[in-house]
Every structure is written in C-alpha cells, then in structure tokens.
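If it is no trouble, might I ask you for a protein's amino acid sequence along with its backbone structure tokens?
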Amino acid sequence: MHPLCQVTILFADLHAYLDNMKAPWELLELRTRYYEQVIKAMLESIGVPLDRLKFVRGTDYQLSKEYTLDVYRLSSLVTQHDAKKAGAEVVKQVEHPLLSGLLYPGLQALDEEYLKVDAQFGGVDQRKIFTFAEKYLPSLGYAKRVHLMNPMVPGLTGSKMSSSEEDSKIDLLDRKEDVKKKLKKAFCEPGNVENNGVLSFIKHVLFPLKSEFVVLREEKWGGNKTYTDYEALEKDFAEQVVHPGDLKNSVEVALNKLLDPIREKFNSPELKKLSSAAYPNPSKAKPGEKGTKNSEPEEVIPSRLDIRVGKVISVEKHPDADSLYVEKIDVGEAEPRTVVSGLVQFIPREQLQDRLVVLLCNLKPQKMRGVESQGMVLCASSVGEPRQVEPLDPPAGCCAGERVYVEGYEGGEPDEELKPKKKVFEKLQADFRVSEDCVAQWKQRNFLTKLGRVSCKSLKGGTIS
C-alpha cells in the first residue's frame, strides 16, 4: 500500500440486502464484523500495513436524510433501461426483477461522493456501473471519479467465480481437506488454458505475491521445476509438459501456506464464535424443528442439480448387459467418471465417442449390472413409437466441466448428492421438455451454458431424461 494512498473498504451491507436479498437483515452486522476481521487477517498474512486502511459500513451513511434525498434525485434522472443495463453483470438477473435491484447501481455511484474518494476500484464486471456513475454523478453536481479495474479470475469450475457456487472458489477459512477437494474437482483440462481457474489463480494471486511458482512432481516425471514468469508456465501447460494433477497439487501446497496464518488467527474462541454466528450451519436445525408439520417444505429448484458439460473419452459395451454402454466421461475433474447408459439400441458407439454431452453429476452412484455409474447422460426422447433418443448437445466451443444451468437459476449451490428418497431430480424432470426449436427447457426456461442454449438435433416437443 503506497504511503500517500488512503484506502477505504466499504462493507456494502445495504447493497447486499437489495441484491435479491442475498443477506438477511439480522445477519448484516455480524457479517460486516466477520469480513473486517478476515480481511485484516488476510492482509496481515502477506505483510500489508493496516494503518492507512479504513472500514466503513454502508448503513453508517446510506440511511441519512441527505443520502436518501440524493437517491430520490437520482431516480428522477435515471431510466429503467439504464439502471438495468448498469447492473447487468453484478445484480442477479431474474425474469421479474425487484425494484431494489434497479436501485443498486445508483447507490454504488452515490457512494463515491459520500465516501469522498478520488477513485473506485473493482473487477471488470463493475464497468457498466462505473460508466453509469461517470454519466449521472455530474448531473447531481458531483465530480466524476477515476475508475480502476482488475481482471476477473475464472472460478475453479471454469465459469465465473460465484459466492453462491461453493466449488467455484476457495474461502479464506477453508480447511486443508476442503482445499484439496475443491482443487481435485476443478476444471483443468490438459493443454487448455482458456477459462482455467487453476492457472488464473497462479497468474493473478500466487505470482504477484511470490514472483515465482514451483511445480512439484516426482523425479520420474522430471522433478520439481521453478517458473519465474507466468508465460513460461502457461506455455508448458498448453504443450502438456505440465500435467493438471501436478499443477493442482502444487497450487494446493502454495495455497495452504497462504491460508495457514489466517486459519491460525481464526482459531481463537472469539473469532470462531463470530464465524459461526455470521454464517450459521443451515443443517443444524433447532430442536423439535425437523420433521414438524409447520416446517417449511424443501424447495425443489433446478439449481440443486449439478449438471455439467462432459466429453466422452471412451465407450464400451457393458460386459454383462447387451443394452448398456459403459462410458468414461471427462467432467473437468482429476479423473473421468464412469457412466452406464442404456443407449445401445438408439445411438451407435462411434457417435458417442469424443462427443460433448450433458451429464447430471450429483445422483447417488449406483451399480448397474455390477458396474458403478457415477452420473446420467441427459437425452431427449420422442413421444410415441417408435422411440427415438438423442443426447443433449451443449453449445459449440464448450469445455468439459462447464456448468449447465436453467435460465433464471444461475445462482445457488447444487446439492452435494441428491438423496433418492427425496426424488428431487424426478420432481424437476417431470417438467423437462424440448421446445419447438429443439432447445432443452424446464417449465419453458432454457438450459444454458455461458456460451448459449443446450439443444438436441431434431426431437421437437420431446421429453428429457
């Protein structure tokens, strides 16, 4: 931190509530206290002085008469189109947005004036809000500020890092076993440097801190290798000189060294208590709450399904069942998954080999004629006889491991494993359909990846299973 620079960190508690009510009111104060402590611990762990750092809560000034009047003044100038456009990459987008989400960009713009800052810093996903602020603050008689942006690091799953998608990120207080589990599942396709969250983490976090990165590997694979510039590492990975498994293991070691001081500080009784209060474990229901008639029914929504793009690496006939294939499918994890599919009579083996498919990944693994299946290839089926079946097709250019979601349900964390007795998939699957233009849908909402719509070749009006 430069000696002449004073940094203000805004805990946007009111923003968090307005953004589709991400945080309930009763937790806002606890969470701002938690974030202040964890940010201080993080900065101290890498030697950043805290004497020129100031923490401010949004509600300390955003509920004042002056600020409220400026919100009204701004709302008389801003069109609904501009407000929605400004928040497109930051505010959760839903089919019927709340008015609160339209206020969000205006509040962030006004914060610049009320915090008396010269510049605002954020990720490139903030650029539309920054443009909004530059356009509208002068209309209120306030100065235009400087805006600084850094690149967005892709999530570990290959798409945008999201607080609501647990496996896309590493939390500062993640245990070592959590770090291992997340990195093991991370998308890191051999030779693929695009949307590779593991490589991006090295580039934007580890290299700036250490100015080097050591790939750890056994002597028989060439031994350890130290890289002093990122481009050389990326080149070796692209040419498959560096294996994804070695890269992940090396990141795990480097990452745990960074996190250990933060974990140690939060091992105190006081901070443990704060962490638990700010983020209570939802699985710990109050006594007598579970199973009562008045308890709220479990929400059955598409974001509970862990659906990913997969690439079929191999296809073989099941050794004990003529109607079944045994496929090895890459879904961006350390090892491909074994999947048993009843597609022999519908799809020739050569049409499955090396193709991209859509795989449901969080079904409970089950044995099918002696072979454990670790997922389900989603296919469109015709209605009536003779039955026709076609695998769903992700958009061209997708990579193995990319998340597939239903329009309007981009957020939310999938269940770790769908419990068979609760029949979550079965309840959702009842409303899976293929549209008249061959797009996969749930209740007329499209299945999507970041590159576009999921479809099938020709089975209009078909079912999906």
Summary: DSSP finds 13 helices and 21 strands in the chain. Confidence is low (pLDDT under 50) at residues 285-296. The first helix runs from residue 13 to 18. The two ends are 55 Å apart (CA to CA).
